[in-house]
Amino acid sequence: MTSQTEMTQLRLRSLTGIGLMCVGVACLSVNDAFAKTLAVGYEPVQVLFLRNLIALPFAAIIAVAMGGRRALRSHRPGAHLVRGVLWLSAATLFFTGLRHLGLAEATTLVFAAPVFITALSALLLGEQVGWRRWSAVLVGFAGVLVVVRPGSAAFQPASLYPVATAVFYAALMISARWVDPRESVWTLMLYLVGAGALLGGLISPFVWTSIRPEDWWLFFGIALFGTAGMTMMTQALRFAPAAVVAPFDYTALLWATALGWLIWGDVPDLVTYIGAGIIALSGLFIVFRERQIT
User: Fold this and answer.
1) What is the rounded CA–CA span in Å between residue 4 and residue 6?
2) Among candidates 1, 6, 19, which has minimal Cα distance to 240?
3) DSSP string of 140-206?
4) Phi then psi for 70, rounded to 5 degrees?
5) 37, 102, 127, 192: least buried by Cβ within 10 Å?
6) Helix axes 4-38, 77-98, angle to 10 degrees
7) Helical pair 44-67 and 4-38, crossing angle rounded to 10 deg
8) For residues 80 and 57, what is the distance between their CA atoms, to the nearest angstrom?
9) What confidence score (pLDDT) does residue 46 get?
10) pTM exceeds 0.70, yes or no
11) Residue 212 DSSP one-character state
12) Residues in the chain with pLDDT < 50?
């Protein structure tokens, strides 16, 4: 039987996890706003290279502080390189989409990732997915179609970029199973940033644009807020179960809408809000259903 003290501690941990998730999501939303600003004058891969290069020493410090020196070691560096390719592809597609779409619309479509994770887990890993989760997957796809509106006058081909981002992000999440189970989440974070810097450094010279002095603060800002956001969201999952904190990931839609309106005057239309609601409900059902199964 759970004592009153234990119940209080569980509530405090849950509240801490929720708070960390909300702040982390806000940081990543600011990160995306900076990325949208920079994507106008620089190729996405260059933005990502500098973002990861600046963030790398901070990621190393965080990894050592949270996981000790063993967090610096990888037992399967090849798996991290593959994950780096997936992550760089996802981020490049998303930043490209931000050039042409409003922040809220792009963010909404990326939230289809849980739908693709479920579908890819069944198709690529042979996991058993019951009819309830398959139904949620279909509903999620319907939400994507509502936002994208293929075949209508409102259709924008650029909306396919964040949809592709969601697919690559789903593959990235699934690829975590290829990493040695002895490695901590901090090792995954460090090597993801490192792989992004390495791969971005190989490609950036071919698309390099000289950095304007007034833009350097944006590059440092995207590194700071991106690293802070990932760290806080990771910590949130250490304090509380995913089913508790996952719903608050969708506060990104509020932040994206607010930032898009304040900075660019973008206001999503009603159809986008309806599609966002469908995608969010589908994703939340998948999270809670997986929680019940496990």
Assistant:
1) 5
2) 19
3) HHHHHHHHH-TTSTT--GGGHHHHHHHHHHHHHHHHGGGS-TTS-HHHHHHHHHHHHHHHHHHHGGG
4) -65, -20
5) 127
6) 60
7) 150
8) 18
9) 96
10) yes
11) P
12) 1
